[in-house]
Amino acid sequence: MKVFQIGAAGGVGQCLMKRLTAPGDAATGMHRAPQQAQKIIGFGGTPVRGDLITDSVDELSARMEGHDAIVFSAGAHGTGQDKTTLIDGKGLEKAAEAASRVGVRRFVLVSAFPESERSGGGVRALNTTCV
Ligand SMILES: NC(=O)c1ccc[n+]([C@@H]2O[C@H](COP(=O)([O-])OP(=O)(O)OC[C@H]3O[C@@H](n4cnc5c(N)ncnc54)[C@H](OP(=O)(O)O)[C@@H]3O)[C@@H](O)[C@H]2O)c1
After folding, report:
1. Ramachandran sector of residue 44 (left: φ over 0; alpha: ψ -120 to 50; beta: rest)
2. Domain covering 23-111, topology
3. Does 55 score more than 80 pLDDT?
4. What's the pLDDT at 124?
5. Phi-psi group of 117: left, alpha or beta (phi > 0 → left; psi -120 to 50 → alpha; rest → beta)
6. Residues with Cβ within 6 A of ligand 1?
7. Would you tell me the crossing angle of helices 92-101 and 57-64 to the nearest 10 degrees?
8. Does the pLDDT at position 123 exceed 90?
9. What residues does each domain of the chain span?
10. Which residue has the higher pLDDT, 106 or 115?
11. How far, in Å, is the centroid of ligand 1 from the Cα of 119?
């Protein structure tokens, strides 16, 4: 399977990429900073630059074309409500629309249950440990 990962250089993204590429699946990792490309190659993936805030749906579609599945694990990671809206909200909408346009029907979203906060536990950012 050929998987397109959004947020590939993040904690969840790195763990997943190692697990996908070890048994022989192919992963394309979308990242923002140029220096993250080498890291993604090191995990066995193919890097591609992209940004959920500035990219259009057409640009995202072009990158996703030919993949079997999308995994979205991008997130603002506590950098404020504005960024959360642009990345976790509007960025997700754009990515879903882009996947739909090029016929990628499998779309996995990594997120959190807001209910965990209501029950008093709070939603805490953890350092993802890849085992
Ligand atoms: N880890 C946890 O404890 C936890 C708990 C609850 C929910 N979550 C959610 O699970 C998801 C993944 O968690 P994580 O720990 O892997 O987060 P992470 O390490 O912060 O990784 C998030 C990734 O999203 C990328 N990203 C941010 N803005 C972007 C944009 N505009 N365009 C493209 N990529 C962008 C980041 O790229 P840069 O490296 O360029 O910043 C980073 O690689 C997030 O949605 C997070 O909110 C995580």
Report:
1. left
2. Rossmann fold (3.40.50)
3. yes
4. 56
5. alpha
6. 6-7, 9-13, 32-33, 51-53, 73-75, 77, 87-88, 91, 110-112, 123, 125-126, 128
7. 60
8. no
9. 23-111
10. 106
11. 24
